């Protein structure tokens, strides 16, 4: 084979390779990312359907606890009910912020120590969770326990469990993912156990403690502990791509809140008003973060404080797909909204 033929073959192979590689480019992400920024948050929110979401709610909380709301799409697509900023939404893992604040408060009160062991509270788990005698409350708060995540057990979301006992049973007797405090791995089991510790220490449910010590002092009256505590008509519907049914009635052990309530909580967390004193705030700062995301079938939440513009931005989107680009599109939507706020804040 002469050099000319070899070069032609190489060029053809490169061309074919390029064409094939273009097939795998995430074009929806590229398109959403490179589009010019709209002039307003509402115009960006109105692109929700282009991003693959049935509905979106955005709340922007600025200095003085002023809240502005933006909504687009549907609260319920079957009945064509428009997205309502006052709807309740399952905030999923964002609820971990409330748990971590509760732990900080109890530590500040001297009702628990961050260095107490898991087996000290639950001796019956000493032989069922590896390293239970070495795992501390601090490690669980910080996801450094090595305890397996029950949501990552085989086919969990296809057959989710209905109560915490069933959820915990999924990981009992499994080997640890790593030795305590030697690594980080996000695990919902940590917060399931922290919830039970709060109940054991206080003699009341975790949510009742949260209500009395966090929600009521902040006048947050639209935050709830479970789907069982609310009127379903007040809840934004949730959808999973390729699955026609509305998921809002499913009990995923998630707190619910309006975007307004959640934004005020994030504001209070970041300005310190959720804490009783500076010591309590320092305890919290040593164990957890000041913003969070949440994801369960049907519901995606992003809730963060942006210091440079002194604004809390909360975004709810109610269409989920664990495969593909769904979460990426949610993040792009959120980041573009923040960029618009920054641009308009100059």
Query: What oligomeric arrangement do these chains adopt?
Result: single chain
- The portion of residues assigned to helices is 25-40%
What ranges have pLDDT less than 50 throughout 5 or more consecutive residues? 13-25
Q: The biggest beta sheet, please?
A: 6 strands, antiparallel
Rg over CA atoms, rounded to whole Å, is: 23 Å
H-E string: HHHEEEEHHHHHHEEEHHEEEEH
| Strand segment tally | 11
Q: What general form does the structure show?
A: globular
Number of helices: 12
How far do the termini sit from each other? 64 Å
Structural class: alpha+beta
| Arithmetic mean pLDDT | 92
Spatial ordering of strands, largest sheet: 3-2-1-10-9-8
Question: What do you see in this structure?
Answer:
- With 346 residues, the protein is of the alpha+beta class.
- The protein is globular.
- 37% of the residues lie in helices and 15% in strands.
- The protein contains twelve helices and eleven strands.
- Helix 4 crosses helix 11 (278-285).
- The N and C termini lie far apart (64 Å).
- The protein has a six-stranded antiparallel β-sheet, with helices on both faces. Strands 4-7-5 form a three-stranded antiparallel β-sheet. The chain has a two-stranded parallel ribbon with strand order 6-11.
